[in-house]
Specification:
Elements (H helix, E strand, L loop, with lengths): L1 H15 L14 H8 L19 H11 L50 E2 L3 E2 L25 H4 L14 H19 L27 H4 L3 H22 L8 H7 L7 H11 L18 E2 L17 H10 L30 E2 L21 H9 L22 H11 L19
Antiparallel strand pairs: 1-2, 3-4
The protein binds heme C (HEC) (2 copies).
The site of one heme C (HEC) has 27 residues, from α11.
């Protein structure tokens, strides 16, 4: 194949009489197809996030990394399970779960929970843990249902979610005071309140645990609740700054688009052509992070252990997002004018829709879909080849998902293409447990 393209290049050279075009169009692609291919690479800088003033502050990111590995703010396990089954301890034990419990290893996914489709924290989360690598490219909807409209606000979900970390914002505030006070005070405008100290005479102002809905929280004064909310938002902003550094680029596919003809094989090139053509994948997996940042019903009937087949995805998420005080137009946002929430309302076509997943490094981050029910990339492509499942999913299937009539070879080709999307791993230093011991 190399020879054929070489002669193609020579032909082009001969015909135009000038040097070979820097962009590569080999015999697989028509100019129209190649134009589509070029919309998928290279991966740009992460989009800015004006709602987080500390988004690009390296000190905030360093604190965020420490907090990513910190277990101290997690609450009691609701479900005990032995380590061999992925458990984190016995029922009732506290301080056992960190973000890194579900986002670990080279690709920051969950290799621990067994069976491995859904993730076990303080209890089962009915979803498969996404990689947090390249999550900063989702703009702006974070999570499979887009329940958050910024990374920093997303980092505030799991610490208080009973089935994830089962902690509270007051615990977060105390852990920051006890272990990370100097760093926190150096980064953020308002220093931590000294009454967070257990030895302070006004310590009663900030109970050890509590979040909205709980008695301890209700009994606090409104100004003290505000103090804790600001601390909690800053905690999220530090984690958000860290998550923005978790970027993987320079996949063989990128080198190919750049002009390195041999960076991907022949089967992968055929798969790429199907991806942007006959198989229609690019209709949703668009742009350099391979997601249109939109929500679709792709016709997956949810099955598997610890899954909730009735989840409505985007519909429930929009409701939660509009009510979330930590959303981009709320009082803790550093830029309330982004318009992210304009035109957002709960509507029937959102029922059962999920965010298009990005596909970079997808060969490393199985199992697949929000339910983790498809084990291999071949399973995924076979699923799309059938036009999705016939029934058993919530909502109305997108008309972009229909039977594709791919041959076995074509299915293999698309898989081979997806395997060329694996970029360089994030630096080891960013995956080190730097939490305070
Ligand atoms: C018990 C396991 C668990 C823990 C602990 C956990 N996560 Fe996750 N994480 C998940 C799962 C499952 C998903 C997918 C959730 C969904 O579909 O809504 C996810 C998704 C995410 C995403 C979204 C990525 C994307 O594709 O949009 C981010 C960001 C994230 N987690 C960050 C964190 C941070 C920060 C913490 C700690 C404060 C944390 N996670 C703790 C399991 C966990
Ligand atoms: C109608 C829009 C749409 C089309 C067309 C589409 N996808 Fe998807 N894709 C999605 C959505 C939405 C998800 C996430 C579904 C979920 O989490 O349940 C997804 C998930 C995936 C995943 C799983 C990624 C992961 O990390 O779990 C892969 C792989 C994938 N698609 C590949 C493809 C391929 C290959 C094609 C073409 C044959 C294709 N998709 C066509 C919308 C689409």
């Amino acid at each position: 194949m190399r020879l054929a393209s070489w002669s193609f290049a020579l032909l082009a050279f001969g015909a135009s009489g000038c040097s070979v075009d820097e962009t590569l169009v080999d015999e697989f692609f028509t100019p129209v197809e190649w134009e589509k291919v070029q919309t998928l690479s290279p991966l740009p800088d992460v989009p800015e996030d004006t709602t987080n003033r500390y988004a690009d502050d390296p000190r905030a990111a360093a604190l965020g990394q420490r907090l990513f590995f910190e277990k101290g703010y997690s609450g009691p396990l609701k479900l005990g399970a032995p380590e061999t089954k992925g458990g984190l301890g016995t029922k009732g034990q506290s301080g056992r779960v960190a973000c890194a419990s579900c986002h670990h290893g080279t690709w920051l996914i969950d290799h621990r929970s067994h069976p491995n489709n859904a993730s076990l924290g303080t209890d089962w989360i009915p979803r498969n843990a996404n990689t947090v690598i390249n999550a900063a490219f989702y703009d702006p909807w974070i999570e499979n249902d887009g329940v958050s409209d910024s990374l920093w606000a997303d980092a505030l979900v799991d610490p208080e979610l009973d089935i994830a970390m089962n902690g509270t914002r007051l615990q977060v505030a105390h852990v920051l005071w006890d272990k990370y006070r100097d760093e926190y005070d150096a980064i953020f405008d308002t220093a931590l309140d000294p009454s967070l100290d257990a030895k302070d005479e006004n310590h009663y102002r900030f109970p050890a645990k509590g979040k909205p809905g709980e008695d301890a929280w209700k009994e606090m004064t409104e100004p003290d609740r505000q103090i804790v909310n600001v601390i909690y938002a800053n905690f999220g902003k530090a984690l958000g700054a860290y998550l923005r550094l978790l970027v993987s680029r320079d996949a063989p596919f990128d080198r190919y688009v750049e002009g390195d003809h041999d960076a991907i094989g022949e089967s992968a090139r055929r798969g790429l052509r199907l991806f942007v053509g006959k198989a229609g994948c690019v209709a949703c997996h668009a742009g350099p992070h391979f997601s249109d940042d939109a929500f679709h019903v792709n016709g997956l009937a949810p099955v598997g252990p610890n899954i909730n087949p009735k989840e409505t995805g985007r519909e429930a998420a929009v409701r939660a997002l509009l009510e979330n005080p930590f959303n981009s137009s709320g009082p803790y946002s550093d830029d309330r004018s982004t318009g992210r929430l304009d035109d957002l309302s709960v509507s029937p076509e959102l029922r059962g829709a999920w965010r298009t997943k990005g596909l970079r490094s997808v060969a490393e981050t199985g199992p697949y879909m929000h339910t983790g029910q498809l084990q291999t990339l071949r399973d995924v492509v076979a699923f799309y080849n059938e036009g999705g499942h016939e029934a058993g999913f919530v909502g109305a299937k997108s008309d972009k998902v229909k039977p594709l009539n791919l041959t076995e070879q074509e299915i293999d080709d698309i898989v081979a293409f997806l395997e060329t999307l694996t970029g360089a791993p994030v630096p080891v230093a960013l995956r080190e447990d730097t939490s305070a011991k």
